[in-house]
Specification:
single chain; alpha+beta; 6 helices
């Protein structure tokens, strides 16, 4: 996958880049099957994979047909070394795009599979990926790839990007909440819906404001997000340092004590 200079400039200006049909139908089918396997409850599930049930189901306000359809998201699938999702995180067509935006030396910092089940999937308010739980330095060096595993539509809760909002830098919770309030009041013009077929990818900057709607349809809207940072980045969070990172590129210079990759 060759990224053009125009695409790089578009990303720098708008904070996102959309590429359709980056995965083949067979690649999408393999990831769907993998998602269904990991979502099945049981003692043999990977211990690193974290699962979150939809809030309305947790409260008892709604009921899902089965456990998989109750899930809001699953986290750290590739970082648990699941073969299908590791292969996706290392997929050359995706890595080449990320490298064109962040440079050649990368690690996968986090990965999340958003399940968005039919009639149950809840809204995700406007937020920024960084610094919400990522805590890297430099703070502007994170790019997420959101891959559609199902067709993403207005009805089933597609993502919405706010072009250029990455230029605002890291916002406070109060500032982020103000954008959500404006969106709720239909007072946030310019937001772009990420409507795409399964196999398409949206790449966005860590500071880009984005949200997703509730799933009002009878169709799933699964999306898999892989979050990348340069290998030379430093962890500056207050909690435990991340330990289960996936090195995307083996060929980079060693900077002692400065790289996440030292802690893989």
């Amino acid at each position: 996958m060759t990224v053009t200079q125009d695409q790089i400039e578009q990303f720098n200006e708008e904070g996102f880049l959309i590429i359709e049909d980056l995965l083949t139908p067979s690649e999408v089918a393999k990831m769907r099957a993998g998602a269904e396997e990991i979502a099945r409850p049981g003692p043999d599930q990977q211990s690193l994979v974290r699962r979150q049930v939809e809030p309305a189901i947790s409260r008892g306000d709604m009921v899902a047909g089965d456990y998989e359809l109750s899930l809001r998201k699953m986290t750290s699938i590739a970082l648990s070394r699941d073969d299908v999702f590791v292969a996706h995180a290392l997929r050359p067509s995706i890595v080449e795009v990320i490298k064109s935006l962040l440079g050649p030396n990368l690690i996968l910092y986090q990965d999340q599979l958003f399940m968005k089940p039919p009639r149950v999937g809840s809204r995700q308010q406007y937020h920024q990926d960084q610094p919400a739980g990522f805590d890297i330095d430099p703070p502007d060096q994170l790019v997420s790839c959101w891959t559609a595993l199902d067709d993403s539509t207005l009805d089933n809760g597609c993502l919405w990007y706010l072009p250029g909002s990455h230029k605002l830098g890291a916002l406070t919770k109060q500032e982020r909440d103000s954008y959500e309030a404006r969106a709720a009041n239909q007072e946030l013009p310019g937001a772009v819906p990420l409507v795409m077929k399964a196999g398409g990818c949206g790449f966005h900057h860590g500071w880009l404001l984005h949200a997703s709607g509730a799933n009002l349809s009878d169709e799933r809207r699964r999306g898999y997000a892989t979050h990348y940072v340069p290998s030379e980045s430093r962890y500056v969070g207050q909690g435990d340092k991340p330990r289960h990172l996936l090195q995307v590129n083996q060929d980079f210079l060693h900077v002692a004590g400065q790289r996440f990759a030292d802690r893989i």
